[in-house]
Write a structure and sequence with these properties.
Main location: cytoplasm
Largest sheet: 6 strands, mixed
Subcellular location: Cytoplasm
Radius of gyration: 16 Å
Bound molecules: guanosine-5'-monophosphate, magnesium ion
GO cellular component, one term: cytosol
Order of helices and strands: EHEHEEEHEEEEH
Structural class: alpha/beta
Helix content: 10-25%
Organism: Levilactobacillus spicheri
Number of helices: 4
Shape: globular
Number of domains: 1
CATH architecture: 3-Layer(aba) Sandwich
Low-confidence stretches: none
Strand order of the largest sheet: 4-3-2-5-6-7
Pfam family, one: Pribosyltran
Length: about 180
């Protein structure tokens, strides 16, 4: 698996430092609340489980799964709800945890859903942001890294469901795509 990587963008150490910085800030900002932290599956799973360890506050967690990619490397534009939350979000302070924001469509879909369900507040923490990819307006409140418009894998992010278990974020060799 490591042999398929052309270059490492963010090392384990870079990611740990970003989690510490974001987690500390989030704990400060939410110290007087009990947020519901929502992990957007599957990509944000590693990031969420790391960032919450740096948050010394009372918090609950839940999971939601939406899909927009259907296997490839380009967004299809249609969002499907694959797994709903278990928790009633009405009146709750929500922290959405995302792996990466590209076109913004996923985030907009989730924010609309949470607003419809009467969340009290909604904030977004993303490991990575690709501002150059925006198609709809969407903004993260907490960002680990601003990334160039490249397709990245690792630390939760997949290509055809693989590479999520790489401990760092990197870019695949071109032949990995052309081989399939
Ligand atoms: P958006 O709806 O903002 O276009 O994309 C959001 C989702 O698309 C992300 O949560 C992620 O699952 C996927 N995505 C966007 N950019 C990348 C990328 O560079 N690599 C991978 N593996 N997934 C991406
Ligand atoms: Mg995602
Ligand atoms: Mg994906």
């Amino acid at each position: 698996m490591n042999n398929d990587i052309e270059k490492v963008l963010y090392s384990e150490e870079d990611i740990a430092a970003a989690c510490k910085r974001l987690g500390t800030q989030l704990a400060e900002d939410y110290h007087d609340k009990t947020p519901l932290i929502i992990c957007v599956l599957k990509g944000a799973i590693l990031f969420m489980t790391d960032v919450i360890r740096d948050m010394d506050i009372y918090a609950e967690i839940d999971f939601i799964d939406v899909s927009s990619y259907h296997g490839g490397t380009a967004s299809t534009g249609t969002i499907t709800l694959l797994k709903d939350l278990d928790t009633d979000v009405a009146g709750r302070d929500i922290l959405l945890v995302e792996d990466i924001i590209d076109t913004g469509r996923t985030l907009k879909y989730l924010e609309d859903l949470l607003r419809d369900r009467k969340a009290n507040s909604i904030k977004v923490c993303t490991l990575m942001d690709k501002p150059s990819g925006r198609v709809v307006e969407a903004k993260a409140d907490y960002v680990g890294f601003n990334v160039p418009s490249e397709f990245v894998v690792g630390y939760g992010l997949d290509y055809e469901e693989k590479y999520r278990n790489l401990p760092y974020v990197g870019v695949l060799k071109p032949e990995v795509y052309s081989d399939k």
